[in-house]
């Protein structure tokens, strides 16, 4: 039986640790919550057959965030009237993407489950994909915040999540993926180039509070992964000097993050019929040792 967050041991860094919960050899972390039974149940969310690709083009955002180089795509001819193409300057985490469990380590303890960095590449998540029931938390529409802007810093607490879920009449189930719709990507896509450059430079973003309360909420609901339409899931810039959410969830709990998803069209459809759950499927690149991968994700309602 999976322990509650309060039952997890406190590591020497002061954070709760799920090392060993899924076995000493585990390299999947919370994706283990995706049991065959839960995946089969997720398929029942498909009712209308509407499909929403939630992955940005690989060349967006432009300019890239975090000092990455722009993607270069070259198309060339082969004998026999064939075309081929090549990508240069390809950063798998530059656009809509997944963080592998080797994306960040704890400075004292190392990587998730005590593994070497190489053991935790994104190829582990490519083995079975991330196939799950998705729950949209529409902060942009249902947050109820005064003067809300998707391009300004806004801390989203556990109380906020619970209030929004109640307003949407949605209950979390074990093995869900939580999709946080802040409106950031929608604002980015609607912006002119000067505004996009400013967004890249300022990085003032609504996001989850970097707290143990957030970690407890996600763990105790057995959330398999959490993803957002923002550069980092958590609020930016950080609002305190303690460990960021990435440091609390990825190396300590083995939680998978998805970032920069394009959730706008899905959120529009959910708002129209008040149905905030869907079937979600993604297959990260099978890149041995990869630190991340393009999202390759689709939502089906």
UniProtKB/TrEMBL annotation:
Gene3D superfamilies recorded: Putative cyclase
Q: Could you give a GO molecular-function term held by this entry? A: arylformamidase activity
According to the lineage, what is the superkingdom? Bacteria
Q: InterPro entries attached here?
A: KFase/CYL, KFase_sf
Q: Name one GO biological process term.
A: L-tryptophan catabolic process to kynurenine
A Pfam family matched in the record:
Cyclase
- What is this protein's record name? Cyclase
């Amino acid at each position: 039986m999976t322990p509650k967050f309060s039952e997890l041991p406190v590591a020497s860094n002061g954070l709760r640790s799920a090392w060993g919960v899924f076995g000493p050899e585990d390299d999947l972390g919370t994706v283990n919550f995706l049991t065959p039974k839960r995946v089969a149940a997720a398929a029942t969310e498909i009712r209308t057959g509407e499909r929403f690709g939630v992955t940005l083009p690989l060349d967006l955002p432009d300019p890239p965030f975090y000092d990455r180089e722009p993607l270069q795509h070259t198309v060339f001819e082969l004998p026999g009237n064939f075309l081929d193409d090549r990508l240069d300057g390809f950063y798998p985490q530059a656009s809509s993407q997944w963080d592998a469990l080797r994306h960040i380590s704890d400075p004292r303890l190392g990587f998730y489950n005590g593994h070497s960095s190489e053991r935790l590449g994104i190829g582990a998540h490519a083995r079975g994909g991330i196939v799950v029931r998705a729950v949209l938390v529409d902060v942009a529409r249902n947050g109820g915040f005064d003067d809300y802007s998707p391009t300004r810093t806004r801390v989203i607490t556990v109380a906020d999540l619970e209030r929004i879920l109640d307003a949407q009449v949605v209950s979390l189930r074990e093995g869900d993926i939580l999709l946080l719709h802040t409106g950031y990507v929608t604002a980015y896509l609607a912006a002119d180039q000067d505004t996009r450059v400013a967004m890249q430079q300022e990085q003032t973003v609504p996001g989850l509070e970097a707290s143990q309360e957030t970690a407890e909420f996600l763990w105790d609901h057995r959330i398999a992964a959490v993803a957002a339409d923002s550069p980092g899931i958590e609020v930016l810039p950080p609002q305190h000097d303690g460990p960021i959410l990435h440091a609390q969830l990825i190396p300590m709990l083995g939680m998978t993050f998805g970032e920069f998803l394009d959730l706008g069209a899905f959120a529009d459809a959910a708002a129209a019929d008040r149905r905030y759950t869907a079937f979600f499927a993604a297959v990260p690149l099978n890149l041995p040792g990869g630190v991340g991968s393009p999202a390759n994700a689709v939502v089906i309602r």
